[in-house]
Recover the amino acids of this structure.
C-alpha cells in the first residue's frame, strides 16, 4: 500500500467515523428534543386538564346556585299560590255560611244540634245559646224543640253553644269554631 492509498483510506475512515459520530450526536439531540417535547406536551395537557376541571367546577357551582335560587323562587311562588287559593276558598266558605244561615235548612240544622245537646244532657238541664244575629229564630226554635233558647251576647257566627252546668260540660257547635278548626287544619298538598 502506498502512501496515497493509505492517506485515502485514513481519510475515508475519518470521514466515516465523523459521519457516524455526527449521526449519533444528531440522534441523541433529536431524542433529547423529542423527550423535551413529550414532557412539554404532558405538562400542557396536565395544565389544560386542571384548567378544564377548575372551569367545570365553577360552572357546576354556578348551575347549582342558579338551580337553588330557581327552586327557592318556585317554592315561594307555590306557597303564595297555595295561600291565595286557601284564602279564596275560605272567603267563599264564609260567603256560603252566610247564605246558609238565611235558609230553612239552617233552622233545621239548629234544631238537629239542639236535639243532639238534649240527648247529651239527658236528665240534666242544659243552657242553650244561639248567636245574637240569629235572634229572629229564637221563638221558632223554642216552639219546634220545646227548649228554652238563650241569646248569647258575643258573636259566634251561627250555630249553637250549650252548657250543662251540673257536669261542667261546654258543647260548642258554633259555626265560628268549626270554621276556625277547618281553617287552622286545612292544608293544600302538592
Amino acid at each position: 500500500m502506498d502512501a496515497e492509498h493509505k492517506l485515502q483510506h485514513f481519510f475515508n475512515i475519518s470521514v466515516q467515523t465523523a459521519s457516524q459520530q455526527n449521526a449519533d450526536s444528531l440522534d441523541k439531540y433529536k431524542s433529547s428534543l423529542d423527550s423535551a417535547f413529550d414532557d412539554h406536551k404532558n405538562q400542557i395537557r396536565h395544565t389544560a386538564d386542571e384548567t378544564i376541571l377548575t372551569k367545570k367546577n365553577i360552572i357546576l357551582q354556578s348551575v347549582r346556585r342558579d338551580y337553588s335560587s330557581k327552586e327557592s323562587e318556585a317554592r315561594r311562588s307555590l306557597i303564595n299560590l297555595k295561600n291565595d287559593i286557601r284564602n279564596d276558598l275560605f272567603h267563599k266558605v264564609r260567603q256560603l255560611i252566610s247564605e246558609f244561615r238565611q235558609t230553612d235548612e239552617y233552622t233545621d240544622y239548629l234544631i238537629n244540634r239542639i236535639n243532639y245537646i238534649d240527648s247529651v244532657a239527658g236528665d240534666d238541664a242544659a243552657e242553650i245559646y244561639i248567636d245574637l244575629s240569629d235572634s229572629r229564630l229564637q221563638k221558632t226554635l223554642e216552639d219546634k224543640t220545646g227548649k228554652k233558647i238563650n241569646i248569647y251576647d258575643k258573636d259566634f257566627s251561627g250555630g249553637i253553644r250549650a252548657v250543662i252546668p251540673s257536669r261542667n260540660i261546654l258543647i260548642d257547635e258554633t259555626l265560628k269554631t268549626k270554621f276556625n278548626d277547618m281553617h287552622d287544619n286545612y292544608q293544600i298538598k302538592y
Remarks:
- The first helix runs from residue 3 to 100.
